[in-house]
C-alpha cells in the first residue's frame, strides 16, 4: 500500500516524532511504500537547517527528520507559502533577498499541487499535528 504523510506538527510537538516513527516503519515495511512527505503549517520548521535543540544528549525532532530525509532520499516537500511565513527558504529564494537559504538538504519547496498529487497517488494519507 502506498502512503503519504502530511506533517503539520511543530518540532516541539510530540506528533512530529510520531510522524517520524510512522515514516520509519513505512520505509522499512516490505508491503508498504512512502510516496511523499508533505510539511505544512508549523511542520515546515522541521526542514529548517538552522533549527537546533541545544541538548548534547538528545537530538531534536528537526535534526532527526533531516537525518531521515537525507538517509532515505524520500520525497520531502515543504509548502513554500508556509515556509516563507516561518522564515524557511531555499538558496534560490534567499538569493532574491541577498540572504542565505536555510532549507535542509533533501527537502524541496513545493506548492499545494504537490500535496494534491500525493493524495491522488496514495492509497492512504495520514495527517500529524
From TrEMBL:
Main subcellular localisation: cytoplasm
Subcellular location, record wording: Cytoplasm
Keywords on record: Cytoplasm, Transferase
Highest rank taxon of the organism: Bacteria
GO molecular function: sulfur carrier activity; sulfurtransferase activity
Xref: InterPro entries: DsrEFH-like, Sulphur_relay_DsrE/F-like, Sulphur_relay_TusD/DsrE
Any GO BP: tRNA wobble position uridine thiolation
Gene3D superfamilies linked to this entry: DsrEFH-like
GO cellular component terms listed in the entry, alphabetical order: sulfurtransferase complex
Similarity comment: Belongs to the DsrE/TusD family.
KW Zinc (keyword) present: no
The name this protein goes by in its record: DsrE/DsrF-like family protein
Transferase is among the record's keywords: yes
Pfam families documented for this protein: DsrE
SUPFAM superfamilies named among the record's database cross-references: DsrEFH-like
Amino acid at each position: 500500500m502506498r502512503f503519504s504523510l502530511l506533517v503539520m506538527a511543530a518540532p516541539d510537538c510530540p506528533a512530529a516524532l510520531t510522524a517520524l516513527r510512522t515514516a520509519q516503519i513505512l520505509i522499512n515495511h516490505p508491503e508498504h511504500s512512502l510516496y511523499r512527505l508533505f510539511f505544512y503549517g508549523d511542520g515546515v520548521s522541521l526542514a529548517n537547517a538552522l533549527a537546533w535543540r541545544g541538548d548534547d544528549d538528545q537530538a531534536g525532532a528537526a535534526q532527526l527528520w533531516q537525518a531521515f530525509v537525507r538517509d532515505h532520499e524520500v520525497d520531502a516537500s515543504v509548502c513554500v507559502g508556509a515556509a516563507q511565513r516561518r522564515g524557511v527558504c531555499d538558496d534560490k529564494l534567499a538569493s532574491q533577498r541577498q540572504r542565505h537559504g536555510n532549507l535542509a538538504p533533501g527537502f524541496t519547496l513545493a506548492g499545494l499541487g504537490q500535496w494534491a498529487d500525493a493524495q491522488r497517488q496514495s492509497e492512504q494519507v495520514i495527517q500529524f499535528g
